Amino acid sequence: MNESNNSNTQGINDSSRAPFEQLGFIDSPDDTIEGTENADRISGDAKEGVGGSSNLPGPLAYWSFDSFLAGIYEDLRGGSSVSVHQLQNNTALPVTAGVTRAGPGGAADSALVFNGEDTFAFIEHDPLMEVTQGTVSVWIQPDELHECEQIVLSKDEKNAGDGGHFRLGIDDGGRIFLRFAEGDGGSNKSWVSTKEYFTEGEWTHIAVSFTEDGITVYADGVAVPDFGWYRKEGNLDSPADATEAYILQNREPWLLGVDTSRTEVNDDPAAFAANTNNLDDAFAGAISDFGLWGGFEPGDALDSGQVWDLFLHGPGDALTAPSGPEPML
After folding, report:
1. pTM of the model
2. What is the 3-state composition of the chain as percent helix, strand, coil, each rounded to the nearest 5?
3. Calpha distance 208→133 (Å, rounded)
Protein backbone atom coordinates (compact mmCIF):
# COMPACT_ATOMS: atom_id res chain seq x y z
CA MET A 1 0.00 0.00 0.00
CA ASN A 2 1.43 3.28 -0.97
CA GLU A 3 0.72 6.03 1.52
CA SER A 4 2.65 8.18 3.85
CA ASN A 5 1.91 7.95 7.56
CA ASN A 6 -0.99 10.26 8.40
CA SER A 7 0.94 11.95 11.20
CA ASN A 8 0.03 9.60 14.04
CA THR A 9 3.21 7.70 14.78
CA GLN A 10 2.38 6.95 18.40
CA GLY A 11 1.95 3.24 18.88
CA ILE A 12 4.39 2.08 16.21
CA ASN A 13 6.80 0.95 18.89
CA ASP A 14 4.17 0.48 21.58
CA SER A 15 1.31 -1.93 22.00
CA SER A 16 -1.60 -1.28 19.66
CA ARG A 17 -3.90 -1.36 22.67
CA ALA A 18 -2.82 1.29 25.18
CA PRO A 19 -3.18 0.54 28.93
CA PHE A 20 -6.01 2.17 30.87
CA GLU A 21 -6.81 3.01 34.45
CA GLN A 22 -9.66 1.00 35.92
CA LEU A 23 -12.56 3.24 36.90
CA GLY A 24 -14.58 0.86 39.08
CA PHE A 25 -18.11 -0.52 38.82
CA ILE A 26 -21.70 0.61 39.23
CA ASP A 27 -24.77 -1.47 40.00
CA SER A 28 -26.96 -2.61 37.13
CA PRO A 29 -30.06 -4.02 38.84
CA ASP A 30 -32.26 -4.37 35.78
CA ASP A 31 -30.12 -6.72 33.67
CA THR A 32 -30.40 -10.49 33.62
CA ILE A 33 -27.43 -12.57 32.46
CA GLU A 34 -28.12 -16.11 31.31
CA GLY A 35 -25.27 -18.45 30.35
CA THR A 36 -25.34 -21.24 27.81
CA GLU A 37 -22.95 -23.99 26.80
CA ASN A 38 -21.80 -21.79 23.92
CA ALA A 39 -19.95 -18.47 23.81
CA ASP A 40 -22.13 -15.74 25.34
CA ARG A 41 -22.42 -12.02 24.69
CA ILE A 42 -23.32 -9.88 27.70
CA SER A 43 -25.35 -6.76 26.95
CA GLY A 44 -27.12 -4.18 29.03
CA ASP A 45 -30.35 -2.37 28.26
CA ALA A 46 -30.74 -1.29 24.65
CA LYS A 47 -29.99 2.35 24.01
CA GLU A 48 -32.91 4.44 22.90
CA GLY A 49 -33.00 4.72 19.14
CA VAL A 50 -30.39 2.00 18.60
CA GLY A 51 -31.11 -1.23 16.73
CA GLY A 52 -31.87 -2.18 13.20
CA SER A 53 -28.55 -0.56 12.24
CA SER A 54 -29.77 2.96 13.06
CA ASN A 55 -26.46 3.58 14.85
CA LEU A 56 -24.39 2.80 11.77
CA PRO A 57 -22.87 5.57 9.65
CA GLY A 58 -23.51 5.47 5.94
CA PRO A 59 -21.17 3.23 3.95
CA LEU A 60 -18.96 4.64 1.23
CA ALA A 61 -20.20 1.85 -1.04
CA TYR A 62 -22.49 -1.15 -0.66
CA TRP A 63 -23.39 -3.97 -3.03
CA SER A 64 -26.23 -6.30 -2.04
CA PHE A 65 -26.13 -8.41 -5.27
CA ASP A 66 -29.92 -8.67 -5.33
CA SER A 67 -30.55 -6.57 -8.43
CA PHE A 68 -28.72 -8.07 -11.40
CA LEU A 69 -29.42 -6.13 -14.61
CA ALA A 70 -27.65 -6.87 -17.91
CA GLY A 71 -24.55 -8.18 -16.18
CA ILE A 72 -24.30 -5.28 -13.73
CA TYR A 73 -24.91 -4.94 -9.98
CA GLU A 74 -25.42 -1.36 -8.84
CA ASP A 75 -23.75 0.20 -5.81
CA LEU A 76 -26.63 1.09 -3.50
CA ARG A 77 -24.75 4.29 -2.64
CA GLY A 78 -24.54 5.35 -6.29
CA GLY A 79 -20.87 4.58 -6.92
CA SER A 80 -19.08 2.04 -9.09
CA SER A 81 -21.10 -0.94 -10.26
CA VAL A 82 -20.03 -4.60 -10.27
CA SER A 83 -19.57 -6.44 -13.55
CA VAL A 84 -19.23 -10.23 -13.76
CA HIS A 85 -16.90 -11.98 -16.20
CA GLN A 86 -15.54 -15.31 -17.35
CA LEU A 87 -11.88 -15.58 -18.32
CA GLN A 88 -11.38 -17.33 -21.66
CA ASN A 89 -8.23 -17.10 -23.77
CA ASN A 90 -7.11 -13.84 -22.15
CA THR A 91 -10.52 -12.31 -22.74
CA ALA A 92 -13.05 -11.16 -20.12
CA LEU A 93 -16.40 -12.38 -21.41
CA PRO A 94 -19.45 -10.71 -19.79
CA VAL A 95 -21.64 -13.08 -17.77
CA THR A 96 -25.31 -12.13 -17.65
CA ALA A 97 -27.04 -15.18 -16.20
CA GLY A 98 -26.62 -17.97 -13.69
CA VAL A 99 -24.35 -16.12 -11.26
CA THR A 100 -26.62 -15.70 -8.25
CA ARG A 101 -28.16 -17.84 -5.51
CA ALA A 102 -29.83 -17.42 -2.12
CA GLY A 103 -27.99 -15.16 0.30
CA PRO A 104 -27.34 -15.48 4.04
CA GLY A 105 -30.90 -14.51 4.92
CA GLY A 106 -32.39 -17.02 2.48
CA ALA A 107 -33.58 -14.45 -0.06
CA ALA A 108 -33.34 -15.81 -3.60
CA ASP A 109 -30.80 -14.34 -6.02
CA SER A 110 -29.04 -12.19 -3.43
CA ALA A 111 -25.52 -13.66 -3.51
CA LEU A 112 -22.88 -13.59 -6.23
CA VAL A 113 -21.45 -17.02 -7.15
CA PHE A 114 -17.90 -17.89 -8.28
CA ASN A 115 -16.93 -21.27 -9.72
CA GLY A 116 -13.34 -21.36 -8.46
CA GLU A 117 -11.98 -21.69 -11.99
CA ASP A 118 -12.63 -18.85 -14.41
CA THR A 119 -15.27 -16.44 -13.08
CA PHE A 120 -14.53 -13.13 -11.37
CA ALA A 121 -16.15 -9.75 -10.74
CA PHE A 122 -14.77 -6.25 -11.22
CA ILE A 123 -15.42 -2.95 -9.42
CA GLU A 124 -13.78 0.19 -10.79
CA HIS A 125 -11.87 2.26 -8.24
CA ASP A 126 -13.69 5.25 -6.78
CA PRO A 127 -11.69 8.08 -5.09
CA LEU A 128 -14.15 7.89 -2.18
CA MET A 129 -12.49 4.57 -1.29
CA GLU A 130 -9.16 6.29 -0.50
CA VAL A 131 -9.33 6.43 3.30
CA THR A 132 -6.99 6.00 6.26
CA GLN A 133 -9.47 4.47 8.72
CA GLY A 134 -12.31 2.21 7.74
CA THR A 135 -14.08 -1.13 7.60
CA VAL A 136 -14.50 -3.77 4.90
CA SER A 137 -17.53 -6.03 5.42
CA VAL A 138 -18.77 -9.07 3.49
CA TRP A 139 -20.71 -12.32 3.87
CA ILE A 140 -18.82 -15.38 2.56
CA GLN A 141 -20.08 -18.89 1.75
CA PRO A 142 -17.36 -21.29 0.54
CA ASP A 143 -18.36 -24.28 -1.56
CA GLU A 144 -14.99 -25.97 -1.09
CA LEU A 145 -12.21 -25.68 1.47
CA HIS A 146 -8.60 -26.36 0.48
CA GLU A 147 -5.20 -26.27 2.12
CA CYS A 148 -4.25 -23.37 -0.20
CA GLU A 149 -5.55 -19.82 -0.41
CA GLN A 150 -8.83 -18.78 -2.00
CA ILE A 151 -9.04 -15.01 -2.37
CA VAL A 152 -12.49 -13.45 -2.00
CA LEU A 153 -11.61 -9.73 -2.19
CA SER A 154 -8.50 -8.24 -3.77
CA LYS A 155 -7.44 -4.60 -4.15
CA ASP A 156 -3.86 -5.35 -5.09
CA GLU A 157 -1.31 -5.56 -7.89
CA LYS A 158 2.18 -6.93 -8.51
CA ASN A 159 5.04 -5.29 -6.57
CA ALA A 160 4.50 -2.05 -4.68
CA GLY A 161 2.38 -0.18 -7.22
CA ASP A 162 -0.43 1.85 -5.74
CA GLY A 163 -0.47 1.91 -1.93
CA GLY A 164 -2.74 0.09 0.46
CA HIS A 165 -2.75 -3.39 -1.01
CA PHE A 166 -5.55 -5.46 0.51
CA ARG A 167 -6.58 -9.10 0.17
CA LEU A 168 -9.12 -11.13 2.14
CA GLY A 169 -9.81 -14.82 1.71
CA ILE A 170 -9.78 -18.35 3.07
CA ASP A 171 -6.72 -20.49 3.76
CA ASP A 172 -5.76 -23.84 5.25
CA GLY A 173 -9.13 -25.56 5.43
CA GLY A 174 -11.29 -22.69 6.67
CA ARG A 175 -9.04 -20.12 8.33
CA ILE A 176 -9.25 -16.39 7.63
CA PHE A 177 -6.48 -15.02 5.41
CA LEU A 178 -5.74 -11.28 5.52
CA ARG A 179 -3.06 -9.26 3.74
CA PHE A 180 -2.64 -5.54 4.30
CA ALA A 181 0.37 -3.52 3.17
CA GLU A 182 1.70 -0.42 4.86
CA GLY A 183 0.78 3.02 3.60
CA ASP A 184 4.12 3.62 1.89
CA GLY A 185 3.63 0.62 -0.40
CA GLY A 186 6.32 -1.52 1.21
CA SER A 187 6.55 -4.28 3.80
CA ASN A 188 3.49 -6.38 3.03
CA LYS A 189 1.98 -8.08 6.07
CA SER A 190 -0.29 -11.11 6.02
CA TRP A 191 -1.80 -13.41 8.62
CA VAL A 192 -3.85 -16.59 8.91
CA SER A 193 -6.20 -17.15 11.84
CA THR A 194 -5.33 -19.99 14.21
CA LYS A 195 -8.99 -21.02 14.27
CA GLU A 196 -11.11 -22.25 11.37
CA TYR A 197 -14.02 -19.84 10.91
CA PHE A 198 -15.41 -21.11 7.60
CA THR A 199 -17.41 -24.27 6.88
CA GLU A 200 -18.35 -25.55 3.44
CA GLY A 201 -21.85 -24.40 2.50
CA GLU A 202 -22.25 -22.14 5.55
CA TRP A 203 -22.39 -18.34 5.61
CA THR A 204 -19.91 -16.36 7.73
CA HIS A 205 -19.86 -12.60 8.13
CA ILE A 206 -16.38 -11.04 8.09
CA ALA A 207 -15.55 -7.43 8.92
CA VAL A 208 -12.07 -5.89 8.88
CA SER A 209 -11.71 -2.57 10.72
CA PHE A 210 -8.42 -0.71 10.31
CA THR A 211 -7.42 2.42 12.25
CA GLU A 212 -4.28 4.10 13.53
CA ASP A 213 -4.52 1.73 16.51
CA GLY A 214 -4.29 -1.43 14.40
CA ILE A 215 -6.56 -3.90 12.59
CA THR A 216 -9.41 -5.84 14.17
CA VAL A 217 -11.08 -8.69 12.28
CA TYR A 218 -14.57 -9.84 13.23
CA ALA A 219 -16.19 -13.19 12.40
CA ASP A 220 -19.98 -13.27 12.83
CA GLY A 221 -19.82 -10.05 14.84
CA VAL A 222 -17.17 -11.19 17.34
CA ALA A 223 -13.57 -9.97 17.24
CA VAL A 224 -10.88 -12.51 16.47
CA PRO A 225 -8.48 -12.29 19.44
CA ASP A 226 -5.27 -10.37 18.85
CA PHE A 227 -3.36 -13.54 19.71
CA GLY A 228 -5.48 -15.69 17.38
CA TRP A 229 -3.23 -15.39 14.32
CA TYR A 230 -0.24 -16.97 12.60
CA ARG A 231 2.16 -14.55 10.94
CA LYS A 232 2.45 -15.54 7.27
CA GLU A 233 4.29 -12.57 5.75
CA GLY A 234 6.14 -9.63 7.29
CA ASN A 235 7.34 -8.96 10.82
CA LEU A 236 4.11 -8.40 12.79
CA ASP A 237 2.62 -11.26 14.78
CA SER A 238 -0.94 -9.94 14.73
CA PRO A 239 -3.11 -7.57 12.65
CA ALA A 240 -3.58 -5.63 15.89
CA ASP A 241 0.04 -4.46 15.56
CA ALA A 242 -0.50 -3.06 12.04
CA THR A 243 -0.88 0.63 12.86
CA GLU A 244 0.01 1.85 9.36
CA ALA A 245 -2.57 -0.14 7.38
CA TYR A 246 -4.65 2.20 5.26
CA ILE A 247 -5.74 2.55 1.65
CA LEU A 248 -5.39 6.28 1.06
CA GLN A 249 -3.33 5.91 -2.12
CA ASN A 250 -4.71 2.55 -3.27
CA ARG A 251 -6.23 3.30 -6.67
CA GLU A 252 -6.50 -0.31 -7.77
CA PRO A 253 -9.95 -1.69 -8.64
CA TRP A 254 -11.62 -4.32 -6.50
CA LEU A 255 -11.56 -7.78 -8.05
CA LEU A 256 -13.78 -10.40 -6.45
CA GLY A 257 -13.12 -14.12 -6.46
CA VAL A 258 -9.48 -13.88 -7.56
CA ASP A 259 -6.00 -12.85 -6.35
CA THR A 260 -4.50 -9.87 -8.24
CA SER A 261 -1.20 -9.61 -6.35
CA ARG A 262 0.70 -11.04 -9.33
CA THR A 263 -1.05 -8.96 -11.99
CA GLU A 264 0.60 -5.83 -13.40
CA VAL A 265 -2.38 -4.23 -15.17
CA ASN A 266 -5.85 -4.20 -13.57
CA ASP A 267 -7.28 -1.01 -15.04
CA ASP A 268 -10.39 -2.67 -16.48
CA PRO A 269 -11.65 -6.24 -17.02
CA ALA A 270 -10.19 -6.43 -20.53
CA ALA A 271 -6.72 -5.29 -19.41
CA PHE A 272 -6.78 -7.69 -16.47
CA ALA A 273 -7.76 -10.63 -18.69
CA ALA A 274 -5.17 -9.76 -21.34
CA ASN A 275 -2.43 -10.18 -18.72
CA THR A 276 -3.93 -13.27 -17.06
CA ASN A 277 -3.80 -16.83 -18.41
CA ASN A 278 -5.44 -18.43 -15.38
CA LEU A 279 -7.07 -16.98 -12.28
CA ASP A 280 -4.78 -17.06 -9.25
CA ASP A 281 -6.21 -18.50 -6.02
CA ALA A 282 -9.74 -18.44 -7.44
CA PHE A 283 -12.63 -18.62 -4.97
CA ALA A 284 -15.32 -21.32 -5.17
CA GLY A 285 -18.42 -20.12 -3.38
CA ALA A 286 -20.59 -17.03 -2.97
CA ILE A 287 -20.47 -13.59 -1.40
CA SER A 288 -23.21 -11.19 -0.37
CA ASP A 289 -23.58 -7.69 1.06
CA PHE A 290 -20.12 -6.29 0.38
CA GLY A 291 -19.74 -2.88 2.03
CA LEU A 292 -17.05 -0.27 2.68
CA TRP A 293 -17.01 2.31 5.46
CA GLY A 294 -14.34 4.88 6.17
CA GLY A 295 -12.80 8.33 6.44
CA PHE A 296 -9.82 9.91 8.15
CA GLU A 297 -10.61 9.54 11.86
CA PRO A 298 -10.70 6.34 13.98
CA GLY A 299 -14.42 6.87 14.48
CA ASP A 300 -14.98 6.48 10.74
CA ALA A 301 -14.26 2.76 11.09
CA LEU A 302 -17.00 0.59 12.57
CA ASP A 303 -16.45 -0.29 16.22
CA SER A 304 -17.30 -3.61 17.86
CA GLY A 305 -20.89 -2.62 18.67
CA GLN A 306 -21.54 -1.38 15.15
CA VAL A 307 -20.08 -4.54 13.60
CA TRP A 308 -22.30 -6.64 15.88
CA ASP A 309 -25.32 -4.59 14.81
CA LEU A 310 -24.37 -4.97 11.14
CA PHE A 311 -24.02 -8.74 11.56
CA LEU A 312 -27.41 -9.05 13.26
CA HIS A 313 -29.49 -6.57 11.27
CA GLY A 314 -27.67 -5.62 8.08
CA PRO A 315 -27.11 -2.00 7.05
CA GLY A 316 -30.75 -0.92 7.38
CA ASP A 317 -31.25 2.81 7.14
CA ALA A 318 -27.47 3.35 7.12
CA LEU A 319 -27.78 3.03 3.33
CA THR A 320 -29.30 6.52 3.29
CA ALA A 321 -27.18 8.02 6.07
CA PRO A 322 -24.20 10.38 5.55
CA SER A 323 -20.86 8.68 4.98
CA GLY A 324 -17.15 9.42 5.03
CA PRO A 325 -15.36 12.43 6.50
CA GLU A 326 -17.21 15.58 7.45
CA PRO A 327 -17.19 18.19 4.65
CA MET A 328 -14.69 21.04 5.00
CA LEU A 329 -16.50 24.36 5.53
Report:
1. 0.81
2. 10, 35, 55
3. 11
